[in-house]
Amino acid sequence: MIDFYHGSIQMFVIDAIANPDIPSLRAGEGLCGIIHNRAGKHLETYCRILGEHEHGDAVITPAFNLPPTFLL
């Protein structure tokens, strides 16, 4: 079952993140930066290998340093 919530991501205990940010998937600002800070440097390395994607594409990456359920 998938539940959708509207609000600050920092308020929820979550299992997955849909990051609607930049096509490169690299660390940036906003939600993308928060995800990369928590996941660690291995996520950045992984995303560099994946390369650029079009807006609307779906990409699944390993969580690296993120536990299966975490609170941002």
Characterization of the model:
- This protein has 72 residues and is mainly alpha-helical.
- The chain has one domain (9-71).
- It is 28% helix and 6% strand.
- The chain has two helices and two strands; from the N terminus they run βααβ.
- The chain has a two-stranded antiparallel sheet.
- The chain is globular, with a radius of gyration of 12 Å.
- It starts with 12 loop residues before the first strand and ends with a strand.
- The model has no long low-confidence stretch (mean pLDDT 76).
Average of pLDDT: 76
Helix content: 25-40%
SSE class = mainly alpha
User: Which term fits the overall shape?
Assistant: globular
| Total E-strand runs | 2
Number of domains: 1
The DSSP helix count reads: 2
The radius of gyration over CA amounts to 12 Å
Separation of termini? Answer: 21 Å
Order of helices and strands: EHHE
Strand content: 5-15%
Q: Give the neighbour order of strands across the main sheet.
A: 1-2
Biggest sheet statistics: 2 strands, antiparallel
Uncertain residue segments: none
